[in-house]
Amino acid sequence: MTLEGQVVLITGASSGIGRATAEALARQGARVGVNFHKNQKGAKEVVETIRRAGSEAHAIRADVTRHDDVHAMVEAVRRHWGRIDVLVNNAGDLLARRTLADMTEEYWDQIMALNLKSIFVCVQAVWEEMAARKSGCIINVSSIAGRNGGGPGAAAYAAAKGGMLTYTKALAKELAPHGIRVNGVAPGVIMTPYHERYSSPDLLQKFVASIPIGRAGTAEEVAEVIVFLASPAARYITGETVEVNGGMLMD
Ligand code: NAI
Fold first, then answer.
1. CA-CA distance, 226 to 153, in Å (whole number)?
2. Which residues form the pocket of ligand 1, taking CB atoms under 6 Å from any ligand atom?
3. Residue 10: enclosing H or E segment and its boundaries?
4. Residue of the nearest CA to atom 33 in ligand 1?
5. Bridge partners of residue 10, in order along the sequence
6. Ligand 1 mean position to 93 CA, how many Å?
7. CA 34–ligand 1 middle distance (angstroms)
8. What is the pLDDT of residue 91?
9. Who contacts 49 (Cβ-Cβ below 8 Å, separation ≥6)?
10. Who's near 95: CB < 8 A, 6+ residues apart?
11. pTM, whole model, 2 decimals?
12. Minimal CA–CA distance to 122: which of 166, 77, 177?
């Protein structure tokens, strides 16, 4: 197991990519802080799955857009296990499909808070303790939208995810001297509750028609890349965001 005894904290881990990542990291021996916001039932299921498989996990509620919530979450993980080795910033959402015609200032601010500000808030809460140990790993879940402008009505979300791509590089430079690697994954179309909420069957069909591999991805296929980035095999990689999109975008 490549992550035996490591302590990981995953935001938005009660469903989709976060959930698959929590379970995949636990299979590699990690002890997992399972952050959730509203879906306590999902978080409990993830914790039970991990414990049944023989590793340790705790569910921790926090809204990642709120500084006090995030600091309380990080303290809770440290109370359980004393440190955080790996932070996966996965929580994020489109909230609704909105074009300029129906964009509001409130919606714009919510999107930026959830998909961009949350990264800064979470990283600021964990980095000093990682730096004190000269060891840490941060992985940001961005999106293909941050590279190609996103699907219909996803402009604000795409801008926030694009900001995350840039912020990943900036953090990688700032934190490398402290022994902390910062990387990301940029998923393409992945079948999770996200698309159940925001993409009609017609729209999904259009997306899939533009994917060379010929199908949408699974949460597990993203999780496996996150496991690699968190593992010692990726020790010389920082500032990189890996595309996991079936070939939907290549450059
Ligand atoms: P999901 O809806 O299953 O997961 C999103 C998670 O974020 C949920 O667990 C939700 O509770 C959590 N969350 C939302 N607001 C929160 C808050 N304020 N505080 C804490 N947690 C909060 O969907 P999925 O697809 O697993 O999304 C995970 C990440 O992947 C997101 O950042 C999303 O933007 C990104 N992504 C997803 C793609 C897809 O095709 N499904 C494509 C590209 C990126």
1. 28
2. 11-12, 14-18, 36-37, 39, 63-65, 90-93, 114, 141, 143, 187, 189-190, 192-195, 219
3. strand 7-10
4. 92
5. 34, 88
6. 5
7. 13
8. 98
9. 23
10. 107, 110, 111, 114, 157
11. 0.98
12. 77
CB-facing half-sphere around the CA of 207: CA atoms within 13 A = 23
Residue nearest to atom 21 of ligand 1 (CA): 12
Nearest residue CA, atom 9 of ligand 1?
Answer: 12
Burial of residue 177, with CB atoms counted within 10 A of its CB: 0-12 exposed, 13-18 middle, 19 or more buried: exposed
Q: What is the pLDDT of residues 217-230, one digit of tens each?
A: 999 999 999 999 99
3-state SS track over 75-110? HHHHHHHCCCCEEEECCCCCCCCECHHHCCHHHHHH
Furthest-apart CA pair in the chain: how many Å?
Answer: 51
Q: Looking at residue 90, what is its pLDDT?
A: 98
Share of the chain above pLDDT 90, in %: 99
User: Residue 14 C-alpha to ligand 1 middle, in angstroms?
Assistant: 9
State the CB neighbour count (10 A cutoff) for residue 193: 15
Concerning whether 157 is annotated as a catalytic residue, the answer is yes
Q: Please report which helix (H) or strand (E) contains residue 49, including its range.
A: helix 40-52
Homologous superfamily, domain 7-237: NAD(P)-binding Rossmann-like Domain (3.40.50.720)
| Single-letter amino acid, residue 33 | G
Q: Is 127 exposed, middle or buried (0-12, 13-18, 19+ CB in 10 A)?
A: buried
Q: Scanning the structure block, which residue is given the tokens 């930026």?
A: 112
What per-residue confidence (pLDDT) applies to 251? 84
- Residue with the smallest CA separation from ligand 1 atom 2 is 194
Q: Spell out the domain ranges in the chain.
A: 7-237
Q: Which residue has the tokens 């857009």?
A: 65
